[in-house]
Amino acid sequence: MPRGELRIYLGAAPGVGKTYAMLEEAQRRTERGTDVVIGFVETHGRKHTAAMIGDLEQVPRRSMTYRGVDFTEMDLDALLARRPEVAVVDELAHTNVPGSRHEKRWQDVQELIDAGISVLTTVNVQHLESINDVVAQITGTTQRETVPDQVVRAAEQVELVDMTPEALRRRMAHGNIYRPDKIDAALGNYFRVGNLTALRELALLWLADKVDDQLDAYRAQQGISDTWEARERVVVALTGGPEGETLVRRAARIAARSKGADLLAVHVARSDGLAGADPAQLARQRVLVESLGGTYHQVLGTDVPAALLDFARGVNATQLVLGASRRGRLAQVFSRGVGVTTTALSGAIDVHLVTHTEAGRGRRTAGVPAALSRRRRLLGFALAGLGMPLLTLLLWALPDLTLTNDILLFLAGVVGVALVGGLWPALVAALGGSLLLNWFFTPPYNTLTIAEADNLLALGVFVGVALAVSWVVDVAARRTREAARASADAQTLATVAGGVLRGQRPLPALLDRLRETFGLRAVSVLELTAEAEGRPGRAREAGAWRIVASVGEAPATSPGAGETAVPVDERLTVVLSGRRLEAADRRVVEAFAAQAAVALRQERLAEEAATARPLAEADRMRAALLAAVSHDLRTPLASAKAAVSSLRSQDVAFDAEDSDELLATADESLDRLGRLVENLLDMSRLQAGVLGVRATAIGLEDAVPRALDELGPSAADVTTDIPADLPAALADPGLLERVLVNIVANALRHSPPGRPPAITASTHAGQVELRVIDTGPGIPEDQWEHVFLPFQRLGDRDNQTGVGLGLALSRGLAEAMDGSITPETTPGGGLTMVLRLPAAAQTRSEEVPE
Predict the structure, then answer these.
(1) End of a domain among 476, 493, 515?
(2) Are 203 and 58 part of one and the same domain?
(3) 246 and 126 together in one domain
(4) % pLDDT > 70, the chain
(5) Over 50: is that where the pLDDT of 418 sits?
(6) Could you tell me whether strands 262-269 and 233-238 are parallel, antiparallel, or unpaired per DSSP bridges?
(7) Same domain, 124 and 180
(8) Which of 240, 288, 336, 559 could form a disulfide with 565 if both were Cys (CB 3.0 to 4.6 A apart)?
(9) CB atoms within 10 A of CB 100
(10) Pfam families, alphabetically (predicted)?
(11) Please, which residues bridge with residue 300 across strands?
């Protein structure tokens, strides 16, 4: 059975017209004769959206009851039985009512597609899993319903329904999105121009990445390797040399000229696995690339120009940035170099050859270490000096051998010397052997003259073969040593990286691993003080450096106090104490030093974030407070103002009953306003840590009735069960009453008619436990902590029930009295709030019977 197709209408925010556009497409397909059925469409009371449904067939929804509340969901079974060609299913990220076949609606859609039914659906960018946290950071609202990105990316078509922020806000102000009572709060919170602009950019960028994926897939299917300049991508080639930072910054400037351009850095490593670049330089350049918003890549290749171009074409790059050759002029005569070769083969890719201070100076490589140890080289020279004469005496004693045999035996001797001592002893053996062969075994004897041309050729071949074999043996020994060194460095780097990743504090873990690896006494990271910065002379003074991190005993306090100092940049230096390192080890230490700088920066950013978090939280709370009370303060004020103005009016004469009703309205509104202000003040004191608590022994049989009286007639039906022998609780009477009022009010608000809440009390483990039980819809367990956040309400959709401070304030007050509030599920459905307080010590002695 062929699978159905998925078409998604993506929007940056609610109200941009996704559902309307989806229904327009459904109507067009119906007019073309396609069998289209509506499985689920949510109009949110918008008349234009409802009118677009028109005569489209709708599958009846399925009714479900969860915790005493009736819900309607899409009837998946009925839709599968109907088997239309196209099904219209709104709100892809919707969470189904518990008890449904699937937890999420996108899973329902997948089943429809597997059954061969094409689906039209909608989703907002804030519901995409990968950017859900980014949206929460921008808007201050966390979306609980998300859909995996791969589900949306797998759609055959994703259409962006776009609208400018100003147009969307006008649509909101005209009442085309939310009810009039929610417009002010929405415009002041989620639908601010800055939020909508950021969401719109997120949607555009996400869709651009989706289009990129489709383009890459098409190019791969069609075998297209030529560059298509659909989007600027700048690739900068790094060799690990000192010019790398110049190239990266130049490439970043090129990329910045095009909005949305990508920056990629690539290093071509040798395919033999041997070290060819400075790891410390590459580490620093990688950090620079990532700080500029680019990505770092590493590929293997023997032919550097071919590897660079293969990578550039693979990522559909439009521009390639290379550094001017560091080789000298003589070297450039014999070989064109990477830059010239790459430019000649680049095709449609623009190549920028950037000059730098290192251009034309030649490659500065560290001194090449000897392939063999000094002892083996001395042994090789000894064999060359003694072995060749001894071999001559041996061959002189065997007069029956021909010149050819003599040459082969001398060649074997040279190879033996090369295996023992390397290149230079072998060269001495080859030259000495050629002279001995010429003097003793080549006619005319005892002279360096050679009579026959064949003998001259034989001696020439001998010398050439001896030199070639000596060179090959020396290179093989050198490569073996380099490979062993590279393997050891790689293993060390891998061990250090693993230790850092597993540690909770990256910088100390990195330094400690570095100290253990090289057997050091101490490792310290020094930073130049602000007073000494920019003054080279003062950098050598005592106190010019300060330790920002260290491990081991007696760490160095200045670069000169340790055995090895590795500068990271102008301000940071890593100092090693305990022993001096070999030159080969320094390259690895420099890589570690670069990573230490990164770890230090991450720690400081984390500290700054921790410092800024309370300020950001306070700012968020202030913004939420202003937005929330904008409605909740106006409502009681407006009601009280209207009642008092009516009573003072001279135009209308009110009878006693009407006057009493107006006075009751004003009184109720002012009471509500008073409770709101008290809650706000208490929450502010809690946040500032200045709430005064005077704990005393108080009986719940006295506190609960006072709280119910505070709530008035609405709490008349609340049932209580408080044992007479219940010990007193240790609490502040005023704060306890506030806690009880808020908890019971919340239970009353969510209790169904005719089923009032109940209050029970008990004691356990030295605590008094009071339970406020309701049989309402309850709260899913994964949202229990969410309801205790300030300015939050379950669903966050009702602007008539206060600013959402009640439970947050109640928990804060309870914790201030050394108590706690925890939610539990009521058996049979509903929510139980459990208030736990310390039990007061018994102050009365028990009477002992006579």
Answers:
(1) 476
(2) yes
(3) no
(4) 77
(5) yes
(6) parallel
(7) yes
(8) 559
(9) 19
(10) DUF4118 (PF13493), HATPase_c (PF02518), HisKA (PF00512), KdpD (PF02702), Usp (PF00582)
(11) 269
Question: Could you give the number of structural domains in the chain?
Answer: 4
**pLDDT score for 801:** 41
Residue 408 sits at φ, ψ, to 5 deg, of -65, -40
Question: Which pLDDT band, with edges at 50, 70 and 90, does 768 fall under?
Answer: very high
Q: Which of the four pLDDT bands, split at 50, 70 and 90, describes residue 286?
A: confident
Residue 465: how many other CB atoms lie within 10 Å: 16
The candidate with the shortest Cα–Cα distance to 709, out of 740, 730, 683, 680, is 740
Residue at token pair 């649509």: 171
Same-domain status, 792 and 703: yes
Question: What are the residues whose beta carbons fall under 8 Å from the beta carbon of 285, sequence distance 6 or more?
Answer: 238, 240, 244, 245, 248, 265, 296
What's the rounded mean pLDDT across residues 520-537? Answer: 75
Say yes or no: 63 and 201 in one domain. Answer: yes
Same domain for 267 and 340, yes or no, is yes
CATH number assigned to the domain comprising residue 31 = 3.40.50.300
Q: For residue 583, which phi and psi values (nearest 5 degrees)?
A: -60, -35
Chain mean position to CA 160: 26
C-alpha–C-alpha distance, residues 226 and 218, integer Å? 13
Among the listed residues 798, 792, 825, the one whose alpha carbon sits nearest the alpha carbon of residue 811: 792
CA–CA distance, 414 with 113 (Å, rounded to integer): 77
CATH code for the domain of 750: 3.30.565.10
154 close to 6: Cβ distance less than 8 angstroms: yes
DSSP letter at 796?
S
Whether 267 and 413 share a structural domain: no
Residue 269, domain CATH: 3.40.50.620
**8-state DSSP, 241:** S
230: confidence class by pLDDT, cuts 50, 70, 90: low
166 and 24 part of one domain: yes
**Tokens representing residue 489 in the block:** 């460095």
Of 161, 188, 222, which closes a domain?
A: 222
**Nearest-angstrom CA–CA distance, 62 and 72:** 5
Peptide bond just before 614 cis, omega within 30 deg:
no
Domain that holds residue 296: 233-354
Q: Is 567 inside any structural domain?
A: no
Return the number of other C-beta atoms located less than 10 Å from residue 13's C-beta: 23
**Contact assessment for residue 318 and residue 232, using Cβ atoms and an 8 Å cutoff:** yes
Amino acid at 623: A
Residue found by looking up tokens 């030199």 in the block: 467
CB-based contacts of 828, cutoff 8 Å, min separation 6: 775
Residues 697-755: pLDDT tens digits? 999 998 899 888 878 788 888 999 999 889 999 988 878 887 888 889 888 888 888 88
The residues facing 768 across adjacent strands are 763, 837
- For the chain, give the percent of residues with pLDDT over 90: 14
Answer yes or no: are the C-beta atoms of 446 and 395 closer than 8 Å: no
> pLDDT tens for residues 548-579?
888 888 888 887 778 888 777 777 888 888 87
What is the residue-wise DSSP string for 747-782? HHHHSPTT---EEEEEEETTEEEEEEEE-SS---GG
CA distance 109 to 57: 18
Tokens encoding 692: 């005064």
The first and second tokens of residue 91, run together, are 């709100």
The residue whose two tokens read 């009751």 is 664
Helix or strand run (H / E) with residue 427:
helix 423-436
Residue 176 falls inside a structural domain = yes
Q: What is the largest CA-CA distance in the chain?
A: 151
Give alpha helix (H) positions in 125-257. Answer: 132-139, 149-153, 165-173, 180-188, 193-222, 244-256
What average pLDDT score do residues 359-370 get? 51
